[in-house]
Design a protein that fits this description.
Layout: H1 10-21, E1 26-35, E2 46-57, E3 63-75, H2 80-89, H3 91-110, E4 118-123, E5 126-131, E6 139-140, H4 149-172, H5 192-210, H6 215-228, H7 231-238, E7 248-250, E8 259-263, E9 269-274, E10 281-283, H8 286-295, H9 306-323, H10 333-342, H11 345-358, H12 386-401
Antiparallel strand pairs: 1-2, 2-3, 3-5, 4-5, 6-8, 7-10, 8-9
Length: 413
Amino acid sequence: MEVEHMGITDHVLENALRRKLSVENVRVLDSVYNCISEKGLNFLSDIFQAVVRYAIISNNGQIKSEGSANVIIKIEPLNEMARGIVHQQDLFTTELKFLRDVLPRIKELLSCQLGPHLLYDSSNPRALIMENLKERGFIMKDRQKGLSLEHCRLTIERIAKLHAGSVAVFEKDPDIIESFKNGGIVSAKCAKSYTNLMEVGLIQVGEKLQKWSDKECASVAGKIIKLAKTIVPRCTDAYNYDFDEFCVLNHGDCWINNIMFLENEKGQPVDLLLVDYQMAVYTSPAIDLLYFLNICPEYDIKYDKDDYFLKVYLNTLTQTMRSIGCKRKPPTMEELKVAIHKRRIYAVFSGVFLYLRMMVNKEDIEDFSKLGESTCESKIDVFKNPDAVKLAHKMIPIMNERGYFDYNDDYIK
């Protein structure tokens, strides 16, 4: 069975099954597709779950056995505007190269799987077929609640291993770096509709805060509104790095919906895999760290455990780089904090703009496909969720104290 716009034929599925099952002769008997893309959260891809019933064929053409497999199919979005953005930023190629050329090498070095197995890739149609991690019991946590201390610690450790593995891969094959130098969410190739939304989104947050009785939050509102005018070029510049600066291959979009956990019967995390590598970018690890720390930890530990997580990260990074024979030295804690402070604008982008929107209830999520290129009107009230209000009361004063909102007005180049 072929889904009309996907172009995923039985032949394509059979190629994927050969790799998944490690058999040569396999025939698709039937397939059922279910779209699992979330409105507003999977804007730059259409994601399907496919249940495929198959037969393994003997050399003489007889059916030896039958079975079923569950796979994930990720294709370019049907929406014309979204598909244009994917082409403009070359997101399909970025994720394909990460899954095909980088992750298998890191897995070999570390003896540790960090992402889903790629079963098949196609350039026409542009599609990735991957294992369905839910088959092995991996689950996604609640994006509105955030991650516990245990879940955060394990994630930070895996991010560190991913970064360390990328250093080793690039030392052996430095040309691979070139594929990821211009990546990232707010790259120079980022769609105008999205950068407009960043500006409008920050202004709306600032205007809401101006009306709060919380004087500390209200006093920062003007800074946030001014910051909106330069948030885009500053975030783009956050990906820049000096020649001698410690750099890694960042996941680029390491938030709750892109982390799949395997838990024990007590709900404790025992393993995790990272998914969705479209925004991977080669630069300072500060990008992944700022993004994760400002989005993922649950309220009770948010911002209170940053130093602890940085120590976990640096210890894991150092030990892993040593164990796999990296020639380059890892950064010191002082160097890491300098890199983070240098890119502190990314905390504003991820925490104030992105995460407040991520906390919106599903029925209120904005459909990015309806945003215009030249103008942008965001109808989301990020403070409709009381938990977002609670978070802002904690987040805004801490960010202000750390100097995240303090920049010169003459920044625009």
